[in-house]
Amino acid sequence: MKKVLFPMLVLGLILSSGCNNKATNVPPMMENNPVTEPADGSASTVSAADALFEKSNLSETVTSEVETPPENLVLETIYFDFDKDALSSVARSMLAKHAQILRQYPQVRVLIEGHCDERGTIEYNLALGDRRAYTVKKYLMNSGIDAARLSTISYGKERPVVRQNTAEAWSKNRRGEFMIIK
Amino acid sequence: MTRKQLYRIILGISLLACGTVFSQESVYLKIQSRAFEKIRILAHEFETNRPSDVGGQLRDILTNDLRLSDYFLVLDARAYGIRPAQGQNPIPGINAAAQIFGAFEIDGQNVRLNVRVEDFPDRNLILNKDYSGTLGDLRQIAHAAANEIIFFLVGETGVAGTQISFVKEGGENKELALVDYDGENPHQLTFNQSINLSPTWSPSGAFLAFTSFKAQNPDLIALRLSSGATVKLSTQPGLNTAPAWSPDGKRIAFTMTKDGNAEIYVMDVNGAKLQRLTNHWAIDSSPSWSPSGREIAFTSGRSGSPQVYIMSAEGGGTRRLTYEGGYNASPAWSPQGDLVAYVSREKGLFQVYTIEVNGMNVARVTDGKYNNEDPVWAPDGQHLAFSVKKDGLWKIYICARDGSGLRAVPGTENGIMPAWSPLITE
């Protein structure tokens, strides 16, 4: 997907530089991969594109170039090992998919919730939940998602999904949950 | 005769009395192994000029206070069929070291109580004091009398009349609540329909600081108890949790993650002079001040798992306190400064322990059967309160510092995270 998207965006730039000054929403990927040379090598196209970016208001709302997310958009919960905030390989692959979705719908913002199972103390688990949420946020940022789109909160062990003291319940409670903010 | 000499007489008598205990009593003593150290005190029915149940109420509150103190074995004279007048003569078979007489008068809305405590059988006067107030003050009158009896007979400060703040769970929310230490008058303090945690008292007893998720972030809030009004203390993004009010009342230590990691900070109550005390990539939380205000005990994950550490209240000078057990957390420094209480995870459950501040004498307080969290000290330094999960239900329990006398505080069902008020300062 990445290999196709970038040239397409460059092409879009070149095409839009010839149009009137319509403000466009800048896809997040562009911030990390600035255009240094357009495909056709034209210096005048680059400066027109630069001018376009300088004029454009990056916070303007969606145009037809950006997809609106579906109403039932859900980012699946990821899970953590006991007493750990590190991401398992399963968690990382799921987060990679989340990052893809977030790139696809650039105006979507997410609240990342960090949770713990009941076996630690209340106060220590508030901090552990915060670390878990932050670890997820960092991973998504490293995948190119703007930090401004990602907020975090820890509930420690105060909001379990399963209120039982079994290993299965605990494994379901040690989680990072995603609340979509559209 | 000085008070100290009286003490020695009382203690001497009670030890003598223990030596003449009969076989039925010795069964009782075996069950409650610390009972032989308790002072046996006979409580007479309170007398008055006109029939009233006020006397019974005063006596019930007072004798309950004496029992809760864990210093006394209170014998009910009525249960033995003994009238107060009979206290004039030595009573065979009752091995009491002292006896309590009470006489009260009601005048309209006012009540006056006279409490007389004598040693036994010589009948030396230990205490003879009047207490007065309105009928609405009955509890305070009884508590004041109990505290004086405790002080005169044991030499310790009583905590009758203190209060315990705690967190009450109800569905999705957790609200702050307050109850008298003897279970009287449990009531809710916050009504913000969110998660509220970690109450801590100001040394004056006028305020509680706590963490609230009311604004969709764990923020640090102060509550004025007299009015219920709240004010925000710290609302940084991330955690503003685990507050601990300094012993001089001027500062609050707490945890924030605003700098990327859970660290302990100290600030003046008004937010000025914010200072970061810890500087480590691991989680640092749950600060607890020494009574001198010069040191802070806290939980840190820096060794790889949570352990209790002590540092200077200026930051630095950090040393590890706990070495036994793989998860030690929630430190609470005793008011005398000699011990730190904490919880240690064993076989998946937390047990309450105490350790001397030099790291010696790790002593277990709870018996291993249930899960226990968040120990705090009573202002006398002789009692602890903590939450216990028994039969699936959390309640606040109190006990003596060695774990004896463990009992639930009535009215604290679904209660966690206790905080014991300062001494009442009337």
Structural class of chain A: alpha+beta
Low-confidence stretches of chain B: 14-35
Strand order of the biggest β-sheet of chain A: 1-4-2-3
Helix content of chain A: 40-55%
Helix content of chain B: 10-25%
Total of helices of chain A: 6
Rg of chain B, please?
A: 23 Å
Mean pLDDT across all residues of chain B, rounded? 91
Shape label of chain A: elongated
Give a short synopsis of this structure.
The complex is a heterodimer of chains A (182) and B (426). Chain A has helices at 2-17, 29-32, 43-55, 89-104, 122-142, 167-173, and strands at 78-79, 109-115, 150-156, 175-181. Chain A is α+β, with helices and mostly antiparallel strands and 182 residues long.
Topology overview:
The complex is a heterodimer of chains A (182) and B (426).
Chain A: H1 2-17, H2 29-32, H3 43-55, E1 78-79, H4 89-104, E2 109-115, H5 122-142, E3 150-156, H6 167-173, E4 175-181
Parallel strand pairs in A: 2-3
Antiparallel strand pairs in A: 1-4, 2-4
Helix pairs in contact in A: 1-3
Chain B: H1 3-19, H2 23-31, E1 39-43, E2 47-48, H3 54-68, E3 72-76, E4 98-107, E5 110-119, E6 125-134, H4 138-154, E7 163-170, E8 173-180, E9 187-188, E10 196-201, E11 207-212, E12 219-224, E13 230-234, E14 240-245, E15 251-256, E16 263-268, E17 275-276, E18 284-289, E19 295-300, E20 307-312, E21 319-320, E22 328-333, E23 339-346, E24 349-356, E25 363-364, E26 371-377, E27 383-390, E28 393-400, E29 407-408, E30 415-420
Parallel strand pairs in B: 1-3, 1-4, 2-4
Antiparallel strand pairs in B: 4-5, 5-6, 7-8, 7-30, 8-9, 10-11, 11-12, 12-13, 14-15, 15-16, 16-17, 18-19, 19-20, 20-21, 22-23, 23-24, 24-25, 26-27, 27-28, 28-29
